[in-house]
Amino acid sequence: MIYVTVDNSAFVRSTMGFMSFNENYYRRKLGEYENKILSNAEIREAKQLLKVLDDLIDEGYTNLNDTMEADFSCLTRLRAVLHRFGEVPFPIDHEKLSDTVYGKNAFELEELLGNLIEDARNHSSFSGNPFLEEIYRYCEWIGYEKDTAYVFLMRDALLPYVFFRSRGRGNIHPWLISRRFLEDITETEYVDDDIRLPLYEALESGHIQFDDYSAYCKERILPALNEHSELKSILLDLLSSIKQNRIIVIESGYMGTIPMMLKALDDRVDFRLFMTAPFLYETYQDRIFCCKYEDIRKFETLYSQDLFMRYSSYRSGKFYVNVSADESVKEKTISEMARLMR
To answer: What is the value of pTM for the model shown?
Structure first.
């Protein structure tokens, strides 16, 4: 599909909001770090904030880092703060995954996952990745309550979905609401950036407590969705298909853009993240499993959640995906699933 950006001003605004928030936040934090003796918690926070920037480089995004280094030597000063206290940055220690080629056939997502779970039940070995134990504990922490539906945002929540479904849990839904999905439905680029902008604006405006933050975001996310009537209609249809009184959205974390979008559309929605960005720890509090931002790339770069499948289409109320043509990717995916099903 050829994407047409009717008006790229939304992208420009979202980029400016992202840059503005981060520049102001990092300037303020550096002012604190450089002028006092830091506690262990503050040193860890400084390491995590540097890891945020190192991860952007690892993912191929350099604009924010380049701008902040040129404007106020941000990365150099953060590293100097750590050096002053005898600390080194968190390493880039997740497994580097190769690119993969996807097959042309499209598979309905829920049916595909059911077939994979059956394959994993009979699999001869478990993945040896130790980080899967953290995901296992995350799934236990999420819990399972009556009159509650659980929405797992693919691809990052594939393994938590497997954990729940393999244990016979009902009212669970795998939704692949990704950047590709948003661009496919709206035929417009950068829709997710436009939805994410209010989250940064809320923080910049001082809305730190969750109720205030959520209300601020809702007031600004809904007009953004009103510009894309088909997308809004699809999301409302998905949400209205759930009859339970509560909806818990599950994903890996960082900003929580999609959970906040769904919450803006339906007051039943709440969410559980594995972790979030350091500047959202206070806001999301009991909605996050841990404050270990340094582990986010380990969560996102598992074979099952990064390489195995990608969004293909959405039709007749169902998500369709293409899967990797690499048999070793499928083998490692099933091994990761088997570990969560033990």
So the answer is: 0.92
